Amino acid sequence: MNIYVCVKQVPDTETKIIPNADGTFIETGSIKWIMNPYDEFAVEQALLVQAANAGSTVTVLRVGSVKDTEALRTAMAMGADDAFLVEAADNLDSYSIAKALKGAISKSGKNPDLILTGKQAIDDDCLQVPQILATMLDIPSVSVVVEYSGSTTDIVVKREIEGGALEVYGVKLPAMIACNKGINTPRYASLPGIMKAKKKPLVVLSLAEVSVVESDRRVKYSHFQLPPEKPSGKKFDATDSAKMGGVVKEVVGLLRTEAKVI
Amino acid sequence: MAKILVFTELHGTHVKGVTLEILGKLSGHTVEIATIGKFPTEAATELAKFGAAKIHSLAGANLDKYSPEGYSNALHGFISKGAYDYVFAGATSLGKDLLPRLATKFDAGMASEVTNFTMEGDKFFGTRPLFAGKCFAKVELSGPKPHFVTVRPNALGLNPNPTSGAAAASDSTVDAGAMKAIIQEILKGASEKLDLTEANIIVSGGRAMKEAANFKILDELANVIGATVGASRAAVDSGFAPHAMQVGQTGKTVAPTLYIACGISGAIQHLAGMRTSKVIVAINTDPDAPIFTKADYGIVGDLFQIVPLLTQEFKNLLGK
To answer: According to the model, what pLDDT value does residue A67 have?
Structure first.
């Protein structure tokens, strides 16, 4: 099977986000970049499917700035065979990213049997790229997948919806599957894996080489700003059991009379 | 003035609350509503009150349950005939899955999960959180029409003075087309309550819950005030609660009217996921816990003592 994994490089979840001076994006200078956490599940799933189907290859794709290839090297250290990077600004919109991924798949010269990615990137939180790419490639896709099983031609996946309910789909490959936490437990890259990854092929492409132009941009952002700070609230000491009942009574009263939410 | 379609799911005899929020916000524009299925009378009445000009009930084979291909084929066919400038939907599980597919069929752009927007003439200007709400940005769309937008539930609120509409009923037949991802069944989740993303009140537990069984005291409180129970990443990673209950950057971003955080210290990625809650109550033994910087009402104390007292006090207040 030709297995593809689309990964994104995003700021670490502990990062304090600061808008840049002209509000067109965020300050990226001191950010620690990591592989999008949901994409780790996709890499792991690709490696599990590869292990179950001898002769399969796992190719990782990423669209983003070239300055740091952490996400691709991590995926290859985990076990992926090769990688394609489409060099682009980090604030490209979902439509352009999907088009670039489609172009990179085409440049790789193979037909995908399975494309995996995370259900969302935790930077722009759009949840669009998997569905856009599948529609562009005219293949079926299921998003927010928490269980995967199947053969080289047919798979069964479970998609999580409201309240933890699951939709069960039977899917004909080739297909695009967007993974949620819970589908597997991603492995850590071993030291030999990290050493090997340095020698694995990483092809860098430009946006022009994958036929993405500025007019492909569908979504434009501006005025990046921090959320308004809340004025500080009221704090009550209820560590003393004699005061506890009174504090609770007061807070419940305030929720009704002051906050008017109950 | 723009011609706008709002796609809605049905929830029993009602439409989703977010549909009415969107409709109320679009007061003054020609807004039509579409659903797969038949609008019940109650839903039609609500939609008329909030200004719907027309309501389309769509029917066709293989559309009794959601499927990505079936719904996107069916709606692509329907929308193509309407010359709409914009198609809106709630950012529900279904809306988030469906709209990017539809947008791509029109080669069009989409703004995901906006928390506010304005229409200036027929131009859309949205505001949406990025980085799980650590910052916000303005969003505009360009390229072929219609443009697509999903709106986060509970973010806009209901228009208190909506202009009513005719809500003229119309029935259309739609075609689900060929499908390669076939839905086989739907397995019920642990909770029949409103999903965290749609809940008006959330009671959340953190690492200090100590074990899964202790979430029972949160369930009891939640039952009294009609809340949905959530959890922090620390609680989920410790195995106290499933990932479906996780609030935060790698879980769900929520915007309830009231958020009660029990034994949650307030890691940056948790705060990002719940900071747009209207009113926040925090209970924690550590007076310096970061959660208190975001709380409207902070109670320094032991959740195992405070939560049962809260449950009793709410019972008294609500006469239960």
So the answer is: 72
**DSSP 3-state of B199:** coil
Dmax over Cα atoms in chain A, in whole Å?
74
- Phi then psi dihedrals of residue B112, to 5 deg: -90, 135
- Nearest-by-Cβ selection for B188 from A95, A132, A165: A165
Which residues in chain B (191-210) have CB-CB distances under 8 A to chain A?
Answer: 191-195, 197-198, 201
Is the CB of A247 inside 8 Å of chain B's CB atoms? yes
Residue tagged 């909770």 (tokens)? B191
* Mean pLDDT, range A226-234, rounded to an integer: 88
Give A2-216's CATH code, choosing from 1.10.1160.10, 3.40.50.620, 3.40.50.2000, 3.65.10.10: 3.40.50.620
Residue B112 with chain A: CB contacts under 8 Å:
94, 124-128
CA A163 to chain centroid: 22
Which CATH fold topology does B201-318 show? Rossmann fold (3.40.50)
Please check whether residue A213 touches B, CB under 8 A. Answer: no
Answer yes or no: do B134 and A227 touch at CB < 8 A. Answer: yes
pLDDT digits 0-9 by tens, B11-54:
899 999 999 999 999 998 999 999 999 999 999 999 999 999 99
Task: Locate A71 and state its tokens.
Answer: 């996400």
Q: What pLDDT does B192 receive? A: 72
pLDDT in tens, A145-198: 999 999 999 999 999 999 889 999 999 999 999 999 999 999 999 999 999 999
Strand partners, B3: B30
Task: Calculate helix-pair angle for B17-25, B41-49, nearest 10 degrees.
Answer: 30
ipTM of this complex: 0.94
φ/ψ bin of A71: left (φ > 0), alpha (ψ from -120 to 50), beta (otherwise): alpha
Phi and psi at B133, nearest 5°, equal 95, 5
Going by C-alpha positions, the residue among A123, A235, A92 that lies closest to residue B272 is A123
| Helix then strand then coil, % of chain B, to nearest 5 | 30, 30, 40
**What chain A residue is nearest to B147 in terms of C-alpha separation?**
A218
pLDDT of residue B276: 87
